[in-house]
Every structure is written in structure tokens, then in C-alpha cells.
Amino acid sequence: MSEPSPPLSAERAPSRLRARLRTLGAVSRRYVRDHPVSLCVVVAVLATAAATGSLWGEDALVWGAGPLATFANGRWWTLVTALVVPDSTIDAVSSVLLALTVLAYAERLLGSRRAGLLLVVLGLSGLVVGIGLHAAAWTVTDLRPVVAAEVPVLDPTTPIAGVVMAASAFAPTLWRRRLRLVGFALLALFALYAGDADSWYRLTAAVIGLGVGAVLARGRERRSWHRSSTRETRTLFAMLVAVVGSGPLVALVSGGGRGPLSLVVEAYTQYDDAMLSRCGRVAEAVCDEQIALLMTRGAGPALLAIVPLVLLLIAAWGLRRGRRAAWVLAMLVLVASAVLPVISLLDGRLQIDPWVDGSGAEYVLWAIATIVIPLALAAALVVTRARFSVRATRKAAAVVTAVVAVAFVACGTTFFVVESLNRRSFNRDLSLPEMLGLTLRRFLPPSFTHPGGSSAFPHQGPALFVYQWIGVLFWAVVVAAILWLYRRARRPVAGGHAHYRELLRRGSDTLGFLGTWEGNRHWYSDDRECAVAYRLTGDVALAVADPLAPAGRRVEALRGFTDYCLEHGWIPAFYSVHGDTLDDLVSLGWRHVPVGVETVMDLAGLTFAGKTWQKVRQPLTRAEREGYTAVWTRWHELTVGQASQVVAIDEEWVADRALPEMGFTLGSLDELRDREVRLLLAVGPDDRVEAVTSWMPSWTDGEITGWTLDFMRRRTDGPNGMMEFLIAKAALQLQEEGATVLSLSGAPLADDPAEPVDGDPAPLRALLRWLAEVLEPAYGFASLFRFKGKFRPRYRPLALAYRDPLQLPAIGAAVGRAYLPDASRHEMVALARSAWEGRR
Fold first, then answer.
1. Separation CA 583–CA 351 (nearest Å)
2. 582 with 592: CB under 8 angstroms?
């Protein structure tokens, strides 16, 4: 009798481990081959850190550069050692991580030879220029922009910052903007708040690198700051708010900071040693407050002092998710942050005498920067407030309001009662008004609470404990309530969408799935057997695609929806309807104008054989030969890596356009998340997603018989032919699954010369033709229409139907607003400019 074989899983485990090790080895070899300069930087930093002892915490400042160390002492070789020797273990680790990540990316953009050369040139130039500016500012103006001039600098991240900013000129539009905005925000954060010489030299190298990159990349298309998608705008503003919130913390951790914005740090400290020493010699009004802060210091007051910073970080998290509550919170805290240094000034807490020893210029610069930065960010949030439109439900908002109010009353009452029962613990007797004032002040950070005269404070016991912690408890409740509110966003009523989907499955045309998109409403007949999806824009109800109705009841549905609109005072219009629906509308006395053409492939007998299919067959064969695969999936099935790549491809596409992403009948990334939508990805042999398409289903008698192409995106730096590859693969696979129709969707404002449409007034037709020409340079609708012609489709005209020619101006404006709901005046100017440039 033979021995039992081991379990299948046990046999596969070693093979899976070997496969993973082989994959890891291949990735490592490819990384070493593609990033030799980055690896050399890592080796140099670790070797010099070990040789000088800075990796173990020993003092290595003798190798550093600075005005005195380099110029006065004649140690010119420090210009080299300062760029490779880290000054501490933390500096060594951060330099290695940056070299392995962002420098490696920059090396891939620039090429290894150019990256190595720029690493030396930009590092030296940044250091030399930074030292020169440092010496000039210190000796000439006494602005004290950085720490003492005699402290040498050791910082390998200086050349890295310069190279990354130079490489940003060669990055795709999306990543170019991210590198520059995030990079300079972080560099400015340390320079303006911490203010050490390292930060300023690093920023100098980055600015020089930006200019060098612009020179090297001249002639390339430049669109760094064009339109961001809503997601990208939210992310960027969240990052900026987080930077402003983190700045004072950076200054505090670095020892108080000496940068232009470090004035604001004074407002977050509990007490001032210099002020206390002066209080021993001269009696000042602020001394009582300083002594009170000294006597009551502890974890509670420290936490209370950084409440504004914590609130900004929480607001940043909410802004990234588009929450209107986060927008309100950020506005309140930013305005308060601008007022805070003024309060500190009026209360005499600032230890800068503006008119003594020539420090007036320093004080003015610090004060202006501290006030202007938060207010400027608040103003930017006001301008972009429409991007943060995700509101909480009214019930949730009412609950949070009640919770905060109850917490305030409960904490205030507790404080008042405990302190009243323990008055003997205070340094002096308190009257009732003073106790009420003290109660209110304990809910605010110390920077906001500087009453005139003597400040009362407890010495010990329950009174001191409550004095320290009651404000922290209240704000903890507020923070928890805000986080809870973020999760209670308003959502559309599910019932209407659910029933519309049921009617879709009964039977629908190729564009019927558009009616399920966010922003659409639904009209139902009395027996709920007929439905029309529509978009309400102002007083115009734009019906999307053909109505859903059983056989013989379409005219009834058209009449019912029209009557419903008239009852509500709306102007009805049917947008992107096919010929059958258009015939019924014409029989009811409606007029119409063509607005596009749908391209449809009939899958029966499709083989891509013959000379006429050569333009499709060649990209398909080439992609398969080079190892590309077409992967069917759905959004919720994507891996984290695949989802992030799809998002990056979409953001890059949006960033490359001077106008916002269009909506209405043109899908965006949000529509991909529908569980009934299928995705087809073009994946390379290295598992990199090169292109993505999405497909919407259509039904006949409850069975899926067709699919409609919606979302099309590809990498700008990817191989050609990826879209032909994906559409051909989709047609062949869906044909095997039993589908009979593959729609390549409608081409807005396109014409089919073989199908002239009668009945449209000449002025409106001329306007639509002009609009098509205007949008072509920005969106390429005509180019897309010609591309779809490769697949030998049949053409189905799409029309806009209306009742009264006098309503056409309102309908035209509604269509424009539906497609571009977020377009600003500036973007409309860009639209006109693109039209003018396209005509030349």
C-alpha cells in the first residue's frame, strides 16, 4: 500500500515561495540596473556617516559648510563633504530613503548620466548661493533668517532636492504638479518655521534646480498648472492645510525655530523663560499670566495649546474627502490663526522689541508672513468651496450640534462647581464674575486667554486637575464629533435608482445605463412601469437617453414626463435620443437638432480578418507579441496597486487639459465604481497598467446582450495602440459571452454625413458646429470620432428634441452647464483661447 501523498497546499507552498523570491530578485536586479546613481548616493551617505561617526551620534560638524567654516576659515573642501556627510542618524536615514525613492524617480526621468551630473552641479551651486545669501542677510540686514552663522551645515538632501525639482520638468503633467507643489510646500515648511540653515540651503538648491529643469526641457509642452480634477484639488488643498497646521509643530520640535513664521510658535508655548527672568527685575502686566502658566503647566495645558494645530490636521483629512464640515472647520481655524499673533502682540507676549537694535524689519516681516499665510489659504478655500460639497445629513449635523452644546455645558458646569468648592486652592479669592470668566477661558488655548491684571490659578488638588484637563476633555469630544460627522454624508435616495435599474434589466438601449449616474433624477409613471432619467439644470429638465417603457407605451412615457415638467414650471428637453424615440417626439409636434453620433459594432460574425481590419489587427498582434494582456475586472476587485495606477492615469489625463473634466453623458472615474460596470485593463509584462476602459451593460428581456464603452484613458508615456488592443479584445471576448452589440458610445457634436437631419433651425445648427470647433482643441471629440471609425461601426445619430424654439437659449445654456458644471470664468477664457489657437 503506497503512502498518502502530501496535501496539495503543502506541495504548492515551496513553489509559491520560490516564485516570489524569483520575482523579488528580478525586481531588485532591475532596480539596481536602472538606478545606479541613487544607489551610489546611498552608499556614499552610509560610508561617510560611518567614517565620521555621525551615524552613531558623534559630532561631525568639522565636515560642514557655512559662511565661517567655508569662507572665513578657508575650508573649501567642506563644499563637497557637506553634501555627502549626514549630521545625525535621523539625517542619514532620511537621506537614504529619499535617495531610494524620489531621487530614483528623478533618475528615471533624467537618465543616470544627467542625474549624476546635476547632483554635483546643483548641490554645489545650491550650497554656494545659499551660503552667500546667508552671509549677506546676516551681516547686512540682521534679519536673522536662519540660526547662528557659525553653525556648519551637513545635509545630503540638498543636492537631492535640486535634482528632483530639475527632473520635475520631464515628469507627466500630474506628477510634475505634485512634485513641485508638495516639494516646495515641504521645503518652505522647514525654511519658514524651523529656519535652520540646512532648510534654506535645501530650498535654494530646489529653486536653482527648477530653473535648470525649465532650460533643459524647453520646447516641451508646458501645462503644469492647468485644471485639476475634484479629487486632485481636494488632495492638494488638504496637503496645504496640513502643512500650515504642521508648521508650528515643526518649529516646536526643532527647538522653537528661527524662521520668518516662527513668531506664531510663541502663541503655542505655555510660558516664556525670558519673560519670567525679566519679571524678576521689572513688574509687567503679563508677568501674572506667565507665573500662572508656569504654576499650572503639565500635559493638559500642553495639549490644549496645540488644539488649533490638531483641528487643522483633522480639517485636512476631511478636505481630502470633500467634506463641507472640514471646509468650515479649516476656515474658522485659519482665521483664528491669523488673529492669534495679533492677540499675542497686544498682550505683550512677543519678546521682540521692534525698534531696538535694528530688529524692526525682522519683526515686520515675521508679523506679516504669520498673518498673510493663513488668510491667503482661507481665501483660496473660499474660491474653491464648490469642490468640498459633501455635506453631512441634517440629522447628523443636529446630533453633533447637540453633543457639542451638551459637552460645553457639562464641562463648564463641572469646572465652575469644582472650582467654587475648592476656592481655597486658588492664589486669591475670586468673585462670581471672575469665576465665570475663568470658566470660559479654560476652553480656549492659552494663546487666546490673556486677561488684564492678575490671573487667578489653583495650586493643588481637584481644582488644579480640573483646571488642567477640562478644556482638553471638551475638545476631545469636539474632535470625536467631527470625525463621526465625516462618516455621515448625505447620499441620494436609493429607492429611485434601484427601481430604475430594475426597469433597465427588463430591456434598455445602449445608452440607458447613463441614467444611473450620480446627479440624475428619475420620473416614473403612475404604475412605475415607465421611467425617464433627467438632469435638472436651472429650470431645464434634460432627459438623458431614451425613456424606459414597455412595448407600445413609449409615447405615453414621453407625454407623462412632459406634463410632469410643465406642472413644476420646468422646460423639458430630450438629449441624446435615438431615431425611434425621435420619431415619436416628432409625431407629438417636437422639433430636433443633431447633437452627436453613436458608433456601434455588430458582433455577429466578427473576426477582424481581411485588409479592411488591418489598422485594428496590427496593434492587437503587436501588443500580444510584446507580452501585453487584457485583464477583465471590476473596480471592487482591483488590487491597491492597480487602483492607484488607474487613478494616476485619470489624474494625468485631467491635468493635461486646460478645461475641467466633462460630465453629463461623459463618464469619469466615479462611474467606474458601479458594481455592474466592467473594466478592461491593458497590463504590461511588468504588471504596469498602460490603459483602462470601462463597459456599461444593456439588457434585452432580462439578459445582457450589449456593452457600451464609456471610460477611456491611457498613459501619455505608454506604447501606442493600447486602445485598439483593448477594444478588439473586448469585442472578441464579449462575442464569446453571447453579446450581440458593442457600442463605442456617442461622439458629442459629431456629424454623420450620410445621415443628414432635417428640422433644425440654421442658427442653432451653426452654433453647435462652432461649439464643436471650440471644444476640439481641448477635448478632441472629432479625433475620437475618427478613431472609432477604424472599427467599421454603423452610425446611429443622436438628437436633442425640444418643444419651442424660444426655449433654445435656455436649453443650450443648460446643456453647457450640465457638461461643465464647475467651469469658472477663467476656464471659459481658456476655452475661447483654445478655440482661437485651434483656428490658426
1. 82
2. yes
Question: Residues 793, 744: contact at Cβ < 8 Å?
Answer: yes
Four-residue CA torsion sign, 780, 786, 792, 797 = positive
Place of cell 491611457: 714
Whole-angstrom distance between the N-terminal and C-terminal Cα of the chain?
88
d(CA 253, CA 309): 14
Query: What does the DSSP assignment read for 83-106?
Result: TT--SSHHHHHHHHHHIIIIIHHH
Residues 383, 292: Cα–Cα separation, whole Å? 42
Sheet of strand 794-802, all strands in order from the earlier edge strand to the far edge:
521-524, 531-537, 540-544, 571-577, 794-802, 591-602, 741-748, 703-714, 689-700, 678-683, 629-633
pLDDT at 113: 92
pLDDT of residue 294: 46
Do residues 308 and 235 touch, judged by C-beta distance below 8 A? no
Give, in degrees to the nearest 5, the angle at Cα 273 between 267 and 277. Answer: 130
What is the mean pLDDT of the segment spanning 440-462?
A: 63
Number of residues in the chain: 840
Task: Name the phi and psi angles at 763, rounded to 5.
Answer: -60, -45
Residue type, 492: P
Q: Which three three-digit cell numbers place residue 285?
A: 502686566
Q: Alpha-carbon dihedral of residues 169, 175, 180, 184, nearest 10 degrees?
A: -140
Q: In angstroms, rounded to a whole number, what is the distance separating the alpha carbons of residues 611 and 607?
A: 12
Flag whether pLDDT at 586 surpasses 60.
yes
pLDDT tens figures, 340-384: 666 656 655 444 444 334 445 555 655 655 677 788 889 989 988
Please report where in the chains the cell 435616495 appears, as a residue: 493
Question: SS3 for 354?
Answer: coil
Helix (H, G, I), strand (E, B) or coil at 581: helix
d(CA 196, CA 190): 8
Instruction: Write a three-state SS string for 112-155.
Output: HHHHHHHHHHHHHHHHHHHHHHHHHHHHHHCCCCCCCCCCCECC
- Report residue 246's pLDDT band, with 50, 70 and 90 as the boundaries: confident
CA distances from 51 to 44, 58, 748 (A): 10, 11, 67
Kindly report the pTM of this predicted structure.
0.63
Residues 6+ apart with CB under 8 A from 800: 573, 574, 575, 576, 577, 592, 593, 594, 595, 811, 815
Closest to 537 measured CA to CA, from 828, 810, 805:
810
Exposure string over 117-137, b if 16+ CB within 10 A, otherwise e: ebbebbbbbbbbebbebbbeb
Top mean pLDDT of 428-437, 451-460, 557-566 is at: 557-566
What does the angle CA 489 – CA 495 – CA 501 come to, to the nearest 5 degrees?
A: 115
**What's the rounded mean pLDDT across residues 108-113?**
92
State how far the alpha carbon of 800 is from the alpha carbons of 196, 534, 592, 596, in Å. Answer: 64, 13, 5, 9
216 vs 294, which has greater pLDDT? 216
CA gap 75, 145 in Å, rounded: 24
- What is d(CA 170, CA 108) in angstroms, rounded to the nearest whole number? 10
- Cell numbers for 743, please give them: 457600442
Output Rg (C-alpha) for the chain, integer angstroms. Answer: 33
Mean pLDDT of all residues in the chain? 78
Instruction: Give the containing element (helix H, strand E) for 571.
Output: strand 571-577
Q: Measuring CA to CA, which residue among 85, 75, 1, 6 is closest to residue 45?
A: 85
Mean pLDDT of the region 54-74: 79
Question: Among 273-277, 819-823, 827-831, which is the least confidently predicted range?
Answer: 273-277
HEC sequence for 511-566: CHHHHHCCCCEEEECCCCCCEEEEEEECCEEEEECCCECCCCCHHHHHHHHHHHHH
User: Using one digit for the tens of pLDDT, what is the confidence trace for 137-179?
Assistant: 766 554 444 444 457 888 899 999 999 999 999 887 777 877 8
